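Possible regression after last week's pipeline update?

I re-ran a chain I had predicted before the update to compare outputs. Posting the input and the new output here so someone can diff against the archived version. Not blocking, just want to make sure nothing changed silently.
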Amino acid sequence: MKILVLYTYPPAPGGLATQGDLLYKGLLEIGVDAHAAHLKSDLEKEWYYRWFKPDVVVGIGFWGDTPDIILHPQRFGIRAVPWILADGYVANYREVLDAMPLILVTSDWVRETFIRDGVRGDHTVTLPIGCDTDAFIPRSPDDPKVRAVREALGVPQEERLILTIGGDAASKGGREVMEALATLGDAVPPWRYVCKVWPQERTNVQNKLDLELVRSLGIQDRVSFPTHQVSRNLMPYLLAACDVYAGPSRLEGFGMPQVEAGACGKPVIGIRAMAMLDTLVHGETAFLARVAQEIRITEAVLGPEAGFEPGHRVVFEKPRVSDYRASVPDIAEYLKLLLNDTDLCRRMGEAGRRRAVERYDYRLVARRLMEILEGGQA
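New output (post-update):
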């Protein structure tokens, strides 16, 4: 079987690009005849259609990418199999998605979101995102590269490092973590909270709001927001440098950093909702805080990225849960446990590593894709 994989190629460090690139890498490693192209490069895609003649085009994106990863290959008579996530709701392309023989989704929560929003669910198959378990591995705190990360972040070896990685801190539950940390006082050893975020306009705005929060909480000297574009080469060492990975995300269709943290042997704090019910095991690989609040919306303003004209207003017949807020007391309780118990951190980290290797290794995901496609579901 010949497969063309569509994603942001060559890959940037972001989640969707990494998702696609690990699938492509996994397919090549298990011996599949595969190529990759940028999902928005119509000329390059057509070039591959004409000479490579793929049996299947697997496109990675969200429902708004339907024209690029579904409709474009279909115009050339090529079978399209999208591997998509939701961003809280589905507002367009329902008829196209409903007519597909097969849709791959990143988690059971994504499937439930699609069904809620009017897309049938009997044609969806959950395919988890792969993890590079050769790169994301447990490392000694004395590893020179790990020590160099902490030095670059300004975190002394004697301090416990809590880490969150995301486009901005708030979307990954960082504000709830900050509020929880502010309640711990002397009940935990000295700590530092690092929110590694990406340079973009919305992040700059959110950083200012988050800085106001930490100042009001009186923990501004213990929280930092390093805002840098980094390659995937640094990420395993960044995760290896932390003691606890905090990711009680407000919206999560899979949770790649949480899985990668587990692969690095780190305990995770998540939220008892969405994809983390698939990827994390409460009390074993992670602590999952209860949902304290569901944020519901009745309308949204969308544009060309979703297949509408600029400023298009979408009104939902029933309010949609757009995101969640984790329980701050729960996060505080779990932080207190983990920051005071290195043996507990080690046990949970070991369990997280086992789960990542057994379920999410990118080669296993590639093999699972082939089983799905060769099983006649495509």
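Follow-up from reviewer: compared with the archived run. The first helix runs from residue 15 to 29. Marking as no regression found.
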